[in-house]
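Intended use. Records like the one below are meant for learning the mapping from a protein sequence to its folded structure. Do not use them to infer anything beyond what is encoded.
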Amino acid sequence: MTCCWLLSLCGFLLAGCGLLNPATPNYGLISVGPFHYAVQEDEQPLFELEVLKWPDGHSAAVSITYDAPFGTHPNHHLAIDAVLARGLTMDMEMVTAIFSAPKNRHLVGNIQDQLLTRGIHLYGHGHRHIDHDSLSYEESLADFRLCYELMNEWGLRPRAYAYPGSAGRLARTQLANRQAGFLCARGMSVKPAEYCICPDSTTVPANWYYLPSVVLAQSESPSYVNSYEELEPILADALARQAWVILMHHAVGIPEGWGYFPLDDFGRELDYLAGHDFWSGNMDMVAVYIKERNAFVPQLGRVTKKKDQRTFALVLADGLDNSVYDQPLTLEFRFNTRLKGQTLHVEPALEGRTDFPVVEGVLRLQAIPDEQTYQLSLR
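Structure written out for the chain above:
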Protein backbone atom coordinates (compact mmCIF):
# COMPACT_ATOMS: atom_id res chain seq x y z
CA MET A 1 0.00 0.00 0.00
CA THR A 2 2.84 2.36 0.95
CA CYS A 3 4.64 1.46 -2.29
CA CYS A 4 1.57 2.36 -4.41
CA TRP A 5 1.24 5.67 -2.55
CA LEU A 6 4.90 6.52 -3.20
CA LEU A 7 4.55 5.70 -6.94
CA SER A 8 1.51 7.94 -7.21
CA LEU A 9 3.34 10.75 -5.44
CA CYS A 10 6.36 10.40 -7.74
CA GLY A 11 4.08 10.53 -10.79
CA PHE A 12 2.44 13.69 -9.46
CA LEU A 13 5.78 15.39 -8.80
CA LEU A 14 7.20 14.42 -12.20
CA ALA A 15 4.12 15.74 -13.97
CA GLY A 16 4.41 19.00 -12.02
CA CYS A 17 8.05 19.33 -13.11
CA GLY A 18 7.10 18.74 -16.73
CA LEU A 19 8.96 15.42 -16.87
CA LEU A 20 5.80 13.36 -17.28
CA ASN A 21 2.70 14.58 -19.08
CA PRO A 22 -0.33 12.44 -18.29
CA ALA A 23 -2.35 14.45 -20.83
CA THR A 24 -0.37 13.02 -23.77
CA PRO A 25 -2.94 11.03 -25.79
CA ASN A 26 -2.40 7.45 -26.85
CA TYR A 27 -3.04 6.59 -30.49
CA GLY A 28 -3.69 3.23 -32.07
CA LEU A 29 -5.06 1.52 -35.16
CA ILE A 30 -7.43 -1.40 -34.74
CA SER A 31 -9.43 -3.65 -37.04
CA VAL A 32 -13.18 -3.22 -36.62
CA GLY A 33 -14.22 -5.64 -39.37
CA PRO A 34 -13.09 -7.17 -42.65
CA PHE A 35 -11.11 -4.53 -44.60
CA HIS A 36 -12.28 -1.97 -42.05
CA TYR A 37 -10.02 -0.12 -39.59
CA ALA A 38 -10.26 2.65 -37.02
CA VAL A 39 -7.66 5.10 -35.73
CA GLN A 40 -8.23 5.88 -32.09
CA GLU A 41 -7.16 8.56 -29.64
CA ASP A 42 -7.34 7.31 -26.05
CA GLU A 43 -9.59 4.48 -27.33
CA GLN A 44 -12.01 6.94 -28.93
CA PRO A 45 -12.32 6.70 -32.75
CA LEU A 46 -11.00 9.64 -34.74
CA PHE A 47 -11.59 8.20 -38.17
CA GLU A 48 -12.38 4.94 -39.90
CA LEU A 49 -10.73 3.55 -43.02
CA GLU A 50 -12.36 0.94 -45.26
CA VAL A 51 -11.02 -0.68 -48.42
CA LEU A 52 -14.00 -0.88 -50.76
CA LYS A 53 -14.73 -4.15 -52.53
CA TRP A 54 -14.56 -2.58 -55.99
CA PRO A 55 -12.96 0.69 -57.17
CA ASP A 56 -14.97 3.86 -56.57
CA GLY A 57 -17.53 1.83 -54.67
CA HIS A 58 -18.97 0.14 -57.77
CA SER A 59 -21.49 -2.61 -57.05
CA ALA A 60 -19.86 -5.27 -59.25
CA ALA A 61 -16.99 -5.91 -61.64
CA VAL A 62 -16.98 -7.19 -65.22
CA SER A 63 -14.18 -8.26 -67.54
CA ILE A 64 -15.03 -8.43 -71.24
CA THR A 65 -12.62 -10.85 -72.91
CA TYR A 66 -12.29 -11.48 -76.63
CA ASP A 67 -10.56 -14.64 -77.87
CA ALA A 68 -9.35 -13.16 -81.13
CA PRO A 69 -5.80 -12.57 -82.45
CA PHE A 70 -5.89 -8.83 -83.12
CA GLY A 71 -5.24 -7.76 -86.68
CA THR A 72 -5.69 -11.17 -88.32
CA HIS A 73 -9.28 -10.38 -89.39
CA PRO A 74 -10.48 -7.06 -90.81
CA ASN A 75 -13.54 -6.94 -88.54
CA HIS A 76 -11.93 -7.33 -85.13
CA HIS A 77 -12.41 -3.59 -84.80
CA LEU A 78 -16.20 -4.01 -84.59
CA ALA A 79 -16.08 -5.24 -81.00
CA ILE A 80 -13.26 -2.88 -80.03
CA ASP A 81 -15.04 0.20 -81.39
CA ALA A 82 -18.30 -0.77 -79.66
CA VAL A 83 -16.56 -1.21 -76.30
CA LEU A 84 -14.57 2.02 -76.44
CA ALA A 85 -17.57 4.05 -77.65
CA ARG A 86 -19.28 3.28 -74.34
CA GLY A 87 -16.30 4.07 -72.15
CA LEU A 88 -15.71 0.41 -71.28
CA THR A 89 -12.62 -1.72 -71.72
CA MET A 90 -11.82 -5.18 -73.00
CA ASP A 91 -9.02 -7.76 -73.15
CA MET A 92 -7.80 -9.70 -76.19
CA GLU A 93 -5.87 -12.95 -76.52
CA MET A 94 -2.19 -13.39 -77.28
CA VAL A 95 -1.15 -16.67 -78.92
CA THR A 96 2.52 -15.82 -79.24
CA ALA A 97 3.32 -18.28 -82.05
CA ILE A 98 0.90 -16.36 -84.29
CA PHE A 99 2.59 -13.03 -83.64
CA SER A 100 6.15 -14.32 -83.71
CA ALA A 101 5.63 -15.55 -87.29
CA PRO A 102 7.42 -13.19 -89.74
CA LYS A 103 4.20 -12.30 -91.60
CA ASN A 104 2.52 -11.17 -88.37
CA ARG A 105 5.43 -9.73 -86.40
CA HIS A 106 4.42 -6.16 -87.36
CA LEU A 107 1.09 -6.66 -85.58
CA VAL A 108 2.85 -6.47 -82.19
CA GLY A 109 3.58 -2.82 -82.86
CA ASN A 110 -0.04 -2.27 -83.84
CA ILE A 111 -1.15 -3.86 -80.58
CA GLN A 112 1.09 -1.53 -78.61
CA ASP A 113 -0.13 1.55 -80.48
CA GLN A 114 -3.79 0.74 -80.99
CA LEU A 115 -4.76 -1.40 -77.99
CA LEU A 116 -2.54 -0.70 -75.00
CA THR A 117 -2.83 3.06 -75.43
CA ARG A 118 -6.62 2.73 -75.31
CA GLY A 119 -6.80 0.61 -72.17
CA ILE A 120 -7.20 -2.77 -73.88
CA HIS A 121 -4.94 -5.39 -72.32
CA LEU A 122 -3.61 -8.69 -73.66
CA TYR A 123 -3.88 -11.98 -71.82
CA GLY A 124 -1.74 -15.02 -72.55
CA HIS A 125 -3.43 -17.71 -74.62
CA GLY A 126 -0.50 -20.10 -74.98
CA HIS A 127 2.47 -20.05 -77.29
CA ARG A 128 0.46 -22.54 -79.33
CA HIS A 129 -3.34 -22.70 -79.41
CA ILE A 130 -3.52 -26.28 -78.15
CA ASP A 131 -5.13 -28.46 -75.51
CA HIS A 132 -2.68 -28.08 -72.63
CA ASP A 133 -4.48 -30.71 -70.56
CA SER A 134 -3.30 -33.26 -73.14
CA LEU A 135 0.34 -32.38 -72.39
CA SER A 136 2.59 -33.34 -69.51
CA TYR A 137 3.36 -30.83 -66.78
CA GLU A 138 6.78 -30.16 -68.33
CA GLU A 139 5.36 -29.66 -71.82
CA SER A 140 2.66 -27.29 -70.58
CA LEU A 141 5.16 -25.34 -68.50
CA ALA A 142 7.46 -24.88 -71.51
CA ASP A 143 4.59 -23.59 -73.67
CA PHE A 144 3.20 -21.28 -70.97
CA ARG A 145 6.65 -19.97 -70.13
CA LEU A 146 7.48 -19.16 -73.76
CA CYS A 147 4.17 -17.32 -74.07
CA TYR A 148 4.92 -15.37 -70.89
CA GLU A 149 8.48 -14.50 -71.89
CA LEU A 150 7.56 -13.31 -75.38
CA MET A 151 4.70 -11.18 -74.07
CA ASN A 152 7.09 -9.66 -71.55
CA GLU A 153 9.70 -9.04 -74.25
CA TRP A 154 7.06 -7.28 -76.39
CA GLY A 155 6.01 -4.99 -73.54
CA LEU A 156 2.57 -6.59 -73.13
CA ARG A 157 2.89 -7.14 -69.39
CA PRO A 158 1.62 -10.70 -68.97
CA ARG A 159 -0.38 -11.17 -65.80
CA ALA A 160 -3.64 -12.89 -66.83
CA TYR A 161 -4.14 -16.00 -68.94
CA ALA A 162 -6.95 -17.88 -70.72
CA TYR A 163 -6.65 -21.56 -71.64
CA PRO A 164 -7.33 -22.38 -75.32
CA GLY A 165 -10.53 -24.39 -75.40
CA SER A 166 -10.71 -23.80 -71.63
CA ALA A 167 -8.42 -26.84 -71.35
CA GLY A 168 -6.91 -26.05 -67.99
CA ARG A 169 -8.99 -28.30 -65.80
CA LEU A 170 -6.14 -30.53 -64.62
CA ALA A 171 -4.19 -29.63 -61.49
CA ARG A 172 -0.88 -30.15 -63.30
CA THR A 173 -1.89 -27.72 -66.06
CA GLN A 174 -2.89 -25.08 -63.54
CA LEU A 175 0.34 -25.55 -61.60
CA ALA A 176 2.38 -25.16 -64.80
CA ASN A 177 0.54 -21.94 -65.61
CA ARG A 178 1.25 -20.57 -62.17
CA GLN A 179 4.91 -21.57 -62.32
CA ALA A 180 5.24 -19.83 -65.69
CA GLY A 181 4.45 -16.51 -63.99
CA PHE A 182 0.78 -15.77 -64.61
CA LEU A 183 -1.28 -14.41 -61.69
CA CYS A 184 -4.58 -15.93 -62.75
CA ALA A 185 -6.10 -18.00 -65.53
CA ARG A 186 -9.56 -18.05 -67.07
CA GLY A 187 -11.46 -21.20 -67.85
CA MET A 188 -15.19 -21.47 -68.52
CA SER A 189 -18.42 -22.75 -67.04
CA VAL A 190 -21.89 -23.57 -68.28
CA LYS A 191 -23.34 -23.58 -64.76
CA PRO A 192 -25.04 -20.30 -63.82
CA ALA A 193 -24.31 -20.95 -60.14
CA GLU A 194 -20.58 -20.63 -60.90
CA TYR A 195 -20.63 -17.43 -62.95
CA CYS A 196 -20.33 -15.05 -59.99
CA ILE A 197 -16.75 -14.74 -58.72
CA CYS A 198 -16.27 -13.45 -55.15
CA PRO A 199 -20.00 -12.99 -54.59
CA ASP A 200 -21.48 -11.45 -51.45
CA SER A 201 -18.92 -11.64 -48.63
CA THR A 202 -16.57 -14.03 -50.47
CA THR A 203 -13.16 -12.41 -50.93
CA VAL A 204 -11.11 -15.05 -52.78
CA PRO A 205 -12.08 -16.96 -55.96
CA ALA A 206 -12.53 -20.69 -55.59
CA ASN A 207 -9.57 -21.24 -57.95
CA TRP A 208 -7.31 -18.47 -59.24
CA TYR A 209 -6.11 -20.78 -62.02
CA TYR A 210 -9.50 -21.79 -63.35
CA LEU A 211 -11.69 -18.72 -63.11
CA PRO A 212 -15.16 -19.44 -64.53
CA SER A 213 -16.41 -17.37 -67.44
CA VAL A 214 -19.64 -16.99 -69.36
CA VAL A 215 -19.27 -18.24 -72.95
CA LEU A 216 -21.33 -16.17 -75.38
CA ALA A 217 -21.79 -17.80 -78.79
CA GLN A 218 -24.61 -18.77 -81.11
CA SER A 219 -25.14 -22.34 -82.32
CA GLU A 220 -21.85 -23.78 -81.01
CA SER A 221 -23.42 -25.42 -77.98
CA PRO A 222 -26.85 -25.30 -76.36
CA SER A 223 -25.05 -24.80 -73.05
CA TYR A 224 -23.53 -21.49 -74.14
CA VAL A 225 -25.28 -18.15 -73.70
CA ASN A 226 -26.72 -17.53 -77.15
CA SER A 227 -28.25 -14.06 -76.86
CA TYR A 228 -28.45 -10.87 -74.87
CA GLU A 229 -31.77 -12.02 -73.40
CA GLU A 230 -30.02 -15.04 -71.86
CA LEU A 231 -27.18 -12.89 -70.57
CA GLU A 232 -29.14 -10.13 -68.86
CA PRO A 233 -30.26 -12.15 -65.79
CA ILE A 234 -26.63 -13.27 -65.28
CA LEU A 235 -25.47 -9.66 -65.21
CA ALA A 236 -28.33 -8.69 -62.89
CA ASP A 237 -27.34 -11.51 -60.53
CA ALA A 238 -23.71 -10.30 -60.50
CA LEU A 239 -24.90 -6.81 -59.56
CA ALA A 240 -27.16 -8.08 -56.80
CA ARG A 241 -24.35 -10.20 -55.32
CA GLN A 242 -21.55 -7.63 -55.76
CA ALA A 243 -19.62 -10.16 -57.81
CA TRP A 244 -17.04 -10.24 -60.59
CA VAL A 245 -18.20 -11.80 -63.85
CA ILE A 246 -15.96 -12.66 -66.81
CA LEU A 247 -17.52 -12.67 -70.29
CA MET A 248 -15.91 -14.73 -73.06
CA HIS A 249 -16.47 -13.72 -76.69
CA HIS A 250 -15.08 -15.01 -79.96
CA ALA A 251 -16.36 -13.83 -83.35
CA VAL A 252 -18.31 -10.67 -82.53
CA GLY A 253 -20.14 -9.52 -85.66
CA ILE A 254 -18.24 -12.08 -87.77
CA PRO A 255 -20.83 -14.70 -88.93
CA GLU A 256 -18.28 -17.00 -90.53
CA GLY A 257 -16.17 -17.19 -87.37
CA TRP A 258 -16.28 -19.84 -84.65
CA GLY A 259 -18.37 -18.66 -81.71
CA TYR A 260 -20.30 -16.05 -83.68
CA PHE A 261 -22.15 -13.52 -81.54
CA PRO A 262 -24.31 -10.86 -83.22
CA LEU A 263 -23.01 -7.31 -83.03
CA ASP A 264 -26.48 -6.07 -82.07
CA ASP A 265 -26.63 -8.39 -79.05
CA PHE A 266 -23.09 -7.38 -78.14
CA GLY A 267 -24.14 -3.73 -78.24
CA ARG A 268 -27.11 -4.39 -75.95
CA GLU A 269 -24.79 -6.22 -73.56
CA LEU A 270 -22.46 -3.22 -73.48
CA ASP A 271 -25.35 -0.80 -73.01
CA TYR A 272 -26.47 -2.77 -69.96
CA LEU A 273 -22.96 -2.71 -68.48
CA ALA A 274 -22.50 1.00 -69.16
CA GLY A 275 -25.94 1.80 -67.75
CA HIS A 276 -25.47 -0.09 -64.48
CA ASP A 277 -22.99 0.11 -61.63
CA PHE A 278 -20.21 -2.13 -63.00
CA TRP A 279 -16.50 -1.55 -62.82
CA SER A 280 -15.33 -2.45 -66.33
CA GLY A 281 -11.90 -3.80 -65.44
CA ASN A 282 -9.27 -5.68 -67.38
CA MET A 283 -8.98 -9.25 -66.15
CA ASP A 284 -5.48 -8.72 -64.79
CA MET A 285 -6.45 -5.46 -63.06
CA VAL A 286 -9.42 -7.03 -61.28
CA ALA A 287 -7.25 -9.93 -60.10
CA VAL A 288 -4.60 -7.54 -58.79
CA TYR A 289 -7.21 -5.42 -56.99
CA ILE A 290 -8.64 -8.48 -55.22
CA LYS A 291 -5.20 -9.73 -54.18
CA GLU A 292 -4.06 -6.32 -52.96
CA ARG A 293 -7.24 -5.81 -50.95
CA ASN A 294 -6.85 -9.21 -49.30
CA ALA A 295 -3.22 -8.47 -48.40
CA PHE A 296 -3.73 -4.85 -47.33
CA VAL A 297 -2.44 -4.01 -43.83
CA PRO A 298 -2.36 -0.30 -42.92
CA GLN A 299 0.11 0.80 -40.26
CA LEU A 300 -0.11 3.86 -38.05
CA GLY A 301 3.11 5.77 -37.54
CA ARG A 302 3.74 8.88 -35.48
CA VAL A 303 0.82 11.20 -34.69
CA THR A 304 1.55 14.83 -33.92
CA LYS A 305 -0.95 17.24 -32.40
CA LYS A 306 -0.87 21.02 -32.55
CA LYS A 307 -3.86 22.63 -30.89
CA ASP A 308 -6.83 20.75 -32.37
CA GLN A 309 -5.06 19.68 -35.56
CA ARG A 310 -3.51 16.23 -35.78
CA THR A 311 -1.14 14.87 -38.41
CA PHE A 312 -1.18 11.12 -38.89
CA ALA A 313 1.60 9.09 -40.47
CA LEU A 314 -0.17 6.23 -42.26
CA VAL A 315 1.65 3.45 -44.11
CA LEU A 316 -0.34 1.78 -46.91
CA ALA A 317 1.11 -1.70 -47.25
CA ASP A 318 0.26 -5.09 -48.72
CA GLY A 319 3.66 -6.79 -48.76
CA LEU A 320 3.31 -7.70 -52.45
CA ASP A 321 5.72 -7.11 -55.33
CA ASN A 322 5.17 -3.46 -56.27
CA SER A 323 6.39 -4.02 -59.83
CA VAL A 324 3.44 -6.37 -60.39
CA TYR A 325 0.81 -5.19 -57.93
CA ASP A 326 0.22 -1.55 -58.80
CA GLN A 327 -3.55 -1.21 -58.98
CA PRO A 328 -4.92 1.65 -56.83
CA LEU A 329 -7.30 0.60 -54.07
CA THR A 330 -10.29 2.76 -53.17
CA LEU A 331 -9.96 3.84 -49.55
CA GLU A 332 -12.98 5.39 -47.86
CA PHE A 333 -12.26 7.64 -44.87
CA ARG A 334 -15.02 8.53 -42.41
CA PHE A 335 -14.01 11.21 -39.92
CA ASN A 336 -15.40 11.71 -36.43
CA THR A 337 -17.33 14.95 -36.05
CA ARG A 338 -14.88 15.86 -33.26
CA LEU A 339 -12.32 16.61 -35.97
CA LYS A 340 -12.80 20.05 -37.44
CA GLY A 341 -11.88 20.69 -41.05
CA GLN A 342 -13.24 20.21 -44.54
CA THR A 343 -10.03 19.40 -46.41
CA LEU A 344 -7.68 16.46 -46.01
CA HIS A 345 -4.09 17.41 -46.78
CA VAL A 346 -1.99 14.47 -47.99
CA GLU A 347 1.77 14.33 -48.49
CA PRO A 348 3.21 13.05 -50.75
CA ALA A 349 0.54 13.76 -53.34
CA LEU A 350 -2.06 11.21 -54.42
CA GLU A 351 -3.69 11.34 -57.84
CA GLY A 352 -1.51 14.39 -58.53
CA ARG A 353 -3.06 16.35 -55.65
CA THR A 354 -2.38 17.10 -52.00
CA ASP A 355 -5.76 18.53 -50.92
CA PHE A 356 -9.08 16.69 -51.03
CA PRO A 357 -12.50 17.98 -49.96
CA VAL A 358 -14.22 16.08 -47.17
CA VAL A 359 -17.98 16.04 -47.72
CA GLU A 360 -20.12 15.32 -44.66
CA GLY A 361 -17.16 13.63 -43.02
CA VAL A 362 -16.50 11.20 -45.89
CA LEU A 363 -13.69 11.05 -48.44
CA ARG A 364 -12.63 8.44 -50.98
CA LEU A 365 -9.03 8.23 -52.19
CA GLN A 366 -7.30 6.03 -54.76
CA ALA A 367 -3.95 4.78 -53.50
CA ILE A 368 -1.55 1.99 -54.40
CA PRO A 369 -0.57 -0.06 -51.31
CA ASP A 370 3.15 0.20 -52.02
CA GLU A 371 4.48 0.61 -48.46
CA GLN A 372 4.58 4.41 -48.87
CA THR A 373 4.13 6.54 -45.73
CA TYR A 374 1.61 9.37 -46.09
CA GLN A 375 1.16 12.33 -43.78
CA LEU A 376 -2.55 13.10 -43.35
CA SER A 377 -4.00 16.16 -41.69
CA LEU A 378 -7.57 17.47 -41.64
CA ARG A 379 -7.68 21.24 -42.10
